């Protein structure tokens, strides 16, 4: 008798857990939709700017990878394919769109690059900061 009561209790707990998981899934879905609404579209389909991510710095849609990161990788000599291999979440189209965005907004992206370098040089680091 106690085994049946215990089994029934376990089934009830599992049912509750399923419901909680479903509710969490729904909440995550709503948050994703809200995040997309907060992103300002650009003329580049793979690039978004949102004050809630990277202080509004242009970012590749659906990732946390900034246009600045892609540009700096090319300055280091990386090809589009090498960047995609380094960041498997990216597609060649996204990398090319990030570079296109850079060429359309060079001053903006280079300002972000300079700000990032300045911040790195101010913080504790063992790397030598070069202009």
Identify the CATH homologous superfamily of the largest domain: Winged helix-like DNA-binding domain superfamily/Winged helix DNA-binding domain
* Stretches with pLDDT under 50, minimum 5 residues: none
- Give the CA-based shape: elongated
> What's the arrangement of strands in the largest beta sheet?
1-2-3
Structural domain count: 2
Sheet-strand content, in percent, reads 5-15%
Radius of gyration: 22 Å
CATH topology tier name of the largest domain: Arc Repressor Mutant, subunit A
What is the level-2 CATH architecture name of the largest domain?
A: Orthogonal Bundle
Q: So how many helices?
A: 5
Major β-sheet, in short?
3 strands, antiparallel
The tally of strands reads 3
Helix content: 55-70%
Head-to-tail CA distance between termini: 78 Å
Which secondary-structure class do the elements indicate?
mainly alpha
CATH class group of the largest domain? Mainly Alpha
- What is the H/E string? HEEEHHHH
Q: Give the rounded overall mean pLDDT.
A: 86
List keywords for this structure.
single chain; 131 residues; mainly alpha; Arc Repressor Mutant, subunit A; 2 domains; three-stranded antiparallel beta sheet; 5 helices; 3 strands; 63% helix
């Amino acid at each position: 008798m106690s085994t049946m009561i215990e089994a029934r209790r376990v089934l009830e707990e599992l049912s509750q857990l399923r419901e909680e998981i479903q509710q969490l899934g729904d909440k995550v879905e709503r948050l994703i939709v809200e995040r997309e609404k907060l992103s300002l579209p650009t003329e580049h389909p793979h690039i978004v700017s949102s004050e809630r991510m990277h202080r509004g710095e242009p970012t590749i849609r659906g990732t946390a990878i900034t246009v600045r990161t892609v540009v700096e990788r090319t300055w280091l000599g990386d090809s589009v394919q090498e960047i995609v291999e380094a960041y498997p979440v990216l597609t060649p189209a996204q990398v090319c769109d990030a570079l296109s965005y850079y060429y359309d907004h060079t001053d903006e992206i280079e300002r972000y690059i300079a700000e990032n370098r300045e911040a790195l040089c101010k913080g504790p680091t063992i790397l030598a900061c070069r202009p």
